[in-house]
Amino acid sequence: MPGKFDFIAHAAKDDGGNWRPPHDLVDHLSSVAQLAADFSSGYGRRWAFQAGLWHDLGKFRDRFQRYIRLASGYEADAHIKGEAGKAPHSTAGAVLACDRFGPAGRVLAYLIAGHHAGLYDWNSENDSLEYRLSLKDSRQELDESLSAGPPDELLDTCGFDASLKAIPGGGAGFSLWVRMLFSALVDADFLDTERYMNPGQFEQRNWQLSLEALLPVFNQYMANLSADATLSEVNHLRASILGQCQAKAQEAPGLFSLTVPTGGGKTLSSMAFALEHAAHHDKKRIIYVIPYTSIIEQTADIFRSIFGEAVIEHHSNAESDPNQENAQSRLACENWDAPIIVTTNVQFFESLFASKTSRCRKLHNIVDSIVVLDEAQLLPPEFLQPILDVLNLLTAHYGVTVVLSTATQPALASREYFDVNQNLRGLDNVREIISDPDELYRRLERVEVRLPTNWHTPTDWDTLAQELTAHESVLAIVNRRQDAKELWQRMSEDTLHLSALMCGAHRSQVIADIKARLKDGIPTRVISTQLVEAGVDVDFPVVYRALAGLDSIAQAAGRCNREGKLNRGKVVVFVPPKPAPPGLLRKGEDACRNVLHTHTGNPLDRALFGQYFERLYHACNLDEHGIADLLKVDGQTLAVNFRTAAERFRLIQDEDSVPVIVLYQGEGSEAEKWITTLRKHGPERWLMRKLQRYTVNIHRRDADRLLHLGDIEEAIPGLYTQVSDWLYHPDLGFNPDGTPPTPTNTII
Question: Domain check: are 529 and 546 in the same one?
C-alpha cells in the first residue's frame, strides 16, 4: 500500500515561500466524491460519488507524479495555474467507466473527461468525447495509472448501480441531469482544491446567514417603509399586493405568476413571496433574474440595503476571453453559494445550457431554490422553447419554484397548431399570486394612451423635438442608440440622454439626477433607449414612445404618473422616422399593429397581451438554433452534443461586438484607477467585477478601426480599454464615430 503523499494531487508554498505538505491524491479523490455526492443528494448521489472518485485517476500515473515534483521537490506553477497538456490526467477515469459499465459508463465519462475542459459533444466533427476515448494515448493513460497501484478501494465498484431508470425527467431530462451532476463534480473539485491551495479564501465561503434569518430583517424593513409611506391609493394597493404575496407563499412549490402593473411594487412583493415560501418549504436560496445589466445594479442595491452581504450580484459585462481562463480565475468565480443571488437572464440561462466548468459550477445550487424571473415578457423568443423545457424540468424534478413577475404576462401555456413546427411545449399549471389582476389593473390605471392616427406615417425628429419641448418634463423612448442620439441633438442643451453607449456608472448617475430633478420639481426632458423601461423607477407626467411591441409600450407607460399624483398621465405612441430593421423588433411592431389597429378601447387592456404574445411567438422560430435537438439523447449510445448546444445558446449574439472599458470622468469615477490596475496585474476576477461599471459594447468593425488608430488598446484578449480622451462624450457616452457630437439646438 503506498504511503502518505506517495501520490500527490496538488502542491503549494506557504506565505514564506516554503513548500507546504502536499495535497494527498487519495484524500482529494475521497473528499471530492463525498462533497459531490452531498451536492447531488436529491438527483444522482451515487453517480456524482463515483465520478468524484475517478475524476483525477490519471494523476496516479508516473508521468504526472514526476511532473508535479519537478521544482524544489514539488512543481510550482504550471499545473497549479491550469496550463494544460504537460501531464494530462482527465481521461483515465472516463475510459475506466466505459470499460466497467458499458454504455451507461458514458455518463461518468462525460463528467470525468470534461472536469477541466468542459462537457464534450459525444460525436461531433470537432474534438468529440467518442474520439478522445478511442485514442491510444487515452488507453495508455489508464493503463499507466492502474499500474501505479492506486488503492483497491478506489477501484472497487461492487456497490455502484449503473441503472439509468431513475433519471429525472427520463430521456427528455437526460442532458440537464448530466449538467447537474457535472456541476456537483466540478464545484466539489474546485472547493477541495481551494481548501488546500487557498485555505483563507475557502474559509470565507461559510455563509452565516440563512433565508430563515433574513425573513424578520425583511419584515422589519417593510414595516418601516410602510410607516413612512404617504397615504395614497397607489400605496394602499401596494400594501394589498404585498399581503397577497405573503399569503400565497404557503402554497406548494412549482410555477407561479405575479401579474402587477408597473409601479405596483413587484420587486419587494416578489421578495416577500420568496422569503415566506422559503420559510414554509425549506428552500435554500433566492435567485432574482433580471433581463438587463443596465438595471441589475439598482435591484441589487435595494436588496443589499436590506440584507447586506447576504446578496451576491453576478453578471458578466467585463470578462476575459473564456479560452484564456485558467485554474486561478476558475477558483475565483461564483458558485452561487449565498442566500440571495441577483443575476441576469444571460448569466442564468446560458449557465443552464453551458458546457464550460466555470458556468456549470453553479447549477447544483439552483436546486431547491426560488427563481424570480423579473420582466418575464423579455424571455427571448428565439430561445423560448429550450428555456421553457428547462424551467419545466427544474420545477418538476429539482425542487425549484419559479415566479414569472411582470406587468405584461407572456403567453407561455402549451399550444398546438396545424403546423406542428409552431407548437409550443409551454408552462402549464401556473398559479397566479394576485387574486383579481383585472381589478388591480383597473385601480392602478394612471395614464391615457394616444395612438398614431396613421400607423404607417412617421413623425420626423424635428417635429417630435418641437412637441417634446412643449412639455416642461417629458420622457421620450426610442428603439435604437442612433435614434436617441439624433433626437437628443435636436433638443435644448439641458436635455438628458440615456443609452447603452453610456457605461453603467454613467447611467446610474444620470438616473439619479433625473430622480432628484423630478422630486424637486425641476423641468426635466430625457431621451432614452428602451433600457429605461425595466426596473428604472422614474415618474414623468408625459411619456412619448416610438412604436414597438405592446409590452414595450406598457413598460413605457409605467414610467408615466407612476405614483398616481396626477389624475391621468399622458402616453403618446409615435411612428419613428426610420423603420425597425428585420428581426424581433420588427416582428414586435407588426404584432402590436395587428392587435391595436382595430381596437377602440384601452390599448393597455390586460386581455390584449395574450393576443399580442401569441401573434409574436407565432411569427418566430421558438428554437431557432436547434438547441432542443442537440440536447436529445440517443437511447442506445447516450450521445448528446453538449458543447455545440452551449455554443449556440447565446442570448446575446455578440460575434459583432466587443467590450471596451471607458474613461468615464463623472463624479466618483474610478475608471482610470481600475484600468491602471488591470494593466499592472491582469484580469483578476474581483477586478473584472469593478470594471463592469465602466464597460460599453461596441461593433467589432468600430473596435478594429479604433485599435488601428491607437484610440483603444487590447488590455487582455477580447477586452479593450479606451486611450483617446475624446472617445467618451459626457452626455452621450462612447462615441466611436470620430467626431464629437454637438446638439444642433434647433429647439430653444
Answer: yes
DSSP 605-648: -THHHHHHHHHHHHTS-TTTT-HHHHTPPPTTT---BHHHHHHH
- Residue 420, classed as helix, strand or coil, is helix
In this structure, the answer to whether residues 178 and 234 fall within a common structural domain is no
Stated as kind and residue range, the H or E segment containing 695 is strand 695-699
Do 502 and 698 form a contact (C-beta atoms < 8 A)?
A: no
For residue 49, the one-letter residue type is F
What does pTM read for this prediction? 0.89
Question: How far apart, in Å, are the Cα atoms of 588 and each of 294, 430, 456, 709?
Answer: 22, 25, 15, 39
Across 458-590, the runs of DSSP E, i.e. the strands, are 474-477, 496-498, 525-528, 542-546, 569-574
Structure confidence by residue, pLDDT tens digits, 122-171: 998 878 999 999 999 999 999 999 999 999 999 998 888 899 988 999 99
Please list, in sequence order, all residues whose beta carbon lies within 8 angstroms of the beta carbon of residue 313, skipping any fewer than 6 positions away.
296, 297, 300, 304, 342, 343
Q: What is the DSSP string of 588-614?
A: HHHHHHHHHTT--S-TT-THHHHHHHH
With beta carbons less than 8 A apart as the criterion, state whether 576 and 479 touch. yes
Which tens digit of pLDDT belongs to each residue from 407-446? 999 999 998 877 777 789 999 999 999 999 999 999 888 8
**Cβ proximity of 142 and 95 under 8 Å:** yes
Helices 384-397 and 345-352, axial angle in degrees (round to 10) = 70
Residues 400 and 493 both lie in one domain: no
Same domain, 120 and 159: yes
CB contact at 8 A, 404 and 373: yes
Supply the pLDDT for residue 176: 98
- Which segments of 282-417 does DSSP mark as H helices, in order? 293-307, 327-332, 345-352, 357-360, 384-397
Supply the DSSP symbol for 468: H
Nearest of 48, 722, 577, 651 to residue 346 by alpha carbon: 651
Residue 601: count of CB within 10 angstroms of its CB: 8
Rounded to whole angstroms, the Cα distance separating 137 from 256 reads: 51
- At residue 653, the pLDDT reads 67
Give residue 120's Cα distance to chain centre: 22
CA 164, distance to chain mean position in Å, is 31
Asked whether residue 568 falls in the same domain as residue 676, the answer is no
Domain that holds residue 492: 446-603
Residue pair 189/115 in contact by the 8 Å Cβ criterion: yes
Give CA–CA dist 282/296, Å, rounded: 27
Alpha helices in 685-745 (DSSP H): 685-691, 700-709
